[in-house]
């Protein structure tokens, strides 16, 4: 059954006053939805950054634990594990990396 279209003289005044109001509601809803999506995206980025930091920290703990286990397993060679002067190593650079660029 087809609906009949009302002529402008028959359309109630409240329908004329509300013309375009639904469009405004949709625009506001889209803005609110986009702000929410941006918030979720920011939380996801922060979560991934935190996960990478935690993984790196876990690797550091693993390396330190391994070093301590090696020291505990071989206490006779504990003198070999002590730190000391590390002045006898050389760093070589290639390309455009020179000492003058890092002295700023």
TrEMBL record:
The keyword Membrane applies. Keywords: Membrane, Transmembrane, Transmembrane helix. PROSITE patterns: PROKAR_NTER_METHYL (PS00409). The lineage of its organism: unclassified sequences, metagenomes, ecological metagenomes. Pfam families: N_methyl (PF07963). The chain crosses the membrane at residues 21-43. This is Type IV fimbrial biogenesis protein PilV. InterPro entries: N_methyl_site.
């Amino acid at each position: 059954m087809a609906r009949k279209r009302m002529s402008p003289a028959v359309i109630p005044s409240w329908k004329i006053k509300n013309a375009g109001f639904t469009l405004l509601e949709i625009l506001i809803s889209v803005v609110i939805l986009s702000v929410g999506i941006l918030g979720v995206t920011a939380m996801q980025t922060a979560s991934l950054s935190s996960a990478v930091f935690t993984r790196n920290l876990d690797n550091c703990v693993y390396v330190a634990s391994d070093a301590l286990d090696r020291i505990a397993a071989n206490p006779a060679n504990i003198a070999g594990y002590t730190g000391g002067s590390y002045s006898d190593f050389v760093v070589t650079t290639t390309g455009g990396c020179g000492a003058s660029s890092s002295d700023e």
